[in-house]
Please model this.
Amino acid sequence: MASRSLNRIVLIGNLTRDPELKYTPAGTAVCTFSIATNRSWTTNDGQTKEEVQYHRVVAWQKLAELCGKLLNKGRKVFAEGRMTYRTFTGKDGIQRTIAEIVLDDFIVFGEGKKMSETVSTDKKSETMSEHEEVAVKSEEVKMESSKEETVNPDDIPF
Model:
């Protein structure tokens, strides 16, 4: 009987650059970005030291598209996934190995930079935060799929 194992990475940090959303030739969405995590400590002589680690993250399919829409440089994010190692031959002919975190789930913290997309409503046009935009878009999709169903914005999980 095989023993159980676990490959789980959990990070809370800031995005070091805007996510890069691309599509494979088969049409699958793939989004890559980096997260920086900080660790600080005080040495025995009272000096405060800080260490920064950078983590490469890759998301696939619908999750990749969400990352491309909701994330941007400097944004604080909770990311959960699994560690993978990939080997490739560079343009210079040297074989390299890269460590990546394949994203399974993420949570965006704070308001961050607001998207200035104007959404017209029956009442008036107004600029919304990302969370409000997602809620409105989710509500519009649900209303389109079923005109009889009423959606309460408080029922939307994000």
About this structure: The chain is about 15% helix and 45% strand. The longest strand covers residues 29-42. Residues 127 and 149 are 26 Å apart (CA to CA).
